[in-house]
Structures are given as structure tokens and as C-alpha cells.
Amino acid sequence: MTDAFGTMEDGDSRYEWFAHLVRQRRTSMFVDPDREVDPAMVQELCGLATWAPNHKKTWPWRFAYFTGDGRARLGETMVADMIEADFGDEVKREKTRTKYLRTPGILVVGCEPHENDTLHHENRDAVAAGIQNLLLGATALGLASFWSTPALLQPPRVLDLCGFGADDRVIGVIYLGWEDRPCPPPERPPLPITLVTH
């Protein structure tokens, strides 16, 4: 019996396939600007995100996908929130106004709050873990991706535009597009690991 990783009984083959996928993931916007990313495919990737660990099964993730003119609308809306919050200078605001046009698709990933402080923080952890699932899935499909932090974590107009709750937080703005050139991997520093045996 086989699956996408190789032989089901062959643990090494499955691990090597997964390790290769992880090492192939790049943060880049080297994309074909004219090739759309199908919303159905993005919905599939969002589904992968929901398989991330979620301690108390709070299901905190929120998603909104922007394509076409919707990307410009997202930029304009974010700038309106920045002006309202007196955040950033005119140069930063103008950059924000147009930057979501850099890839064919923009996925906004949000997180629901929780009244329990520990679960509130764990919700963010679950969403961040979910984003990694999503990014790995995108890599497997041949998509380039870039996880960016929004100008504001709780921009009210953007939250409303996304269909999120007023108290939700934006954890990431993910740029998506079909990769059109390779992106060399950055060097990784040595990894110190503390080993305690007794």
C-alpha cells in the first residue's frame, strides 16, 4: 500500500519526503503576476491549517481571500485604519495602499480571542501552527508564499471587510502566487540542543 510519501510501511521514505518539503519552503514573492491562484485551492490549504494542534478545540482560525480588485480594496481599507490609529507616515501608508498587488492572491489569517488568558494565547499559537501547515501545502503545490505581519493587528475596517469579529486579531497576511523562479535557501545557524538524561 502506498501514499504520497511512498510506501506506508516505510517510515524512512515518509520522513525523507516530508523533510525535503520542509526544506523546500521559501519565503518569496517570485511569482507569475498574471496567473491566478484558484480560490478553491486556497480553501483546500485553509483546511490544512485547521489540522494544527488546538489544545481545547476552540477552532480559532479565520480566513479571508483577496484577488483582483479586492487586493486594492484591502490596501485602501488598511490605510484608512492606519490613518484612524495615527499609525505610520505618508510613505508607509502609500506603500501599504499598493503592496497587496504584488501577488495574485492575498490571504488574511485571523484569530478569535478567548476570555481565558491562557487559551487566548494558545489560540494564537494554534493559528500560527496552522499557517505553517498552509505554507507547506502551498509549497507542495508549487506556490510561492510570503507570511507578513499587518500594519495593525486589530484594524477595525479590515476585520469587518474580512468578515471577522470586532475583537479578532490578524495574525498574518499571506502573499500567494505561482512560483516563477527558484529562491536560494538562507543559511541556517548551528542548532544548540540541551540534552538532559538524568
TrEMBL record:
Q: Which domain of life is it from?
A: Bacteria
- List the Gene3D superfamilies hit by this protein, alphabetically: NADH Oxidase (3.40.109.10)
Keywords (A to Z) from UniProt: Flavoprotein, FMN, NAD, NADP, Oxidoreductase
The family database entries (CDD domains) matched by this protein are listed as: YdjA-like
Per the UniProt record, one Pfam family is Nitroreductase
Does the keyword field hold Ligase? no
Keyword hit for Mitochondrion: no
Q: Where is the Nitroreductase domain?
A: 22-178
Q: Which cofactor does it need?
A: FMN
Q: What is this protein called?
A: Putative oxidoreductase
Query: Which organism is the protein's source?
Result: Ilumatobacter coccineus (strain NBRC 103263 / KCTC 29153 / YM16-304)
What high-level taxonomic lineage is stated for the organism?
Answer: Bacteria, Bacillati, Actinomycetota, Acidimicrobiia, Acidimicrobiales
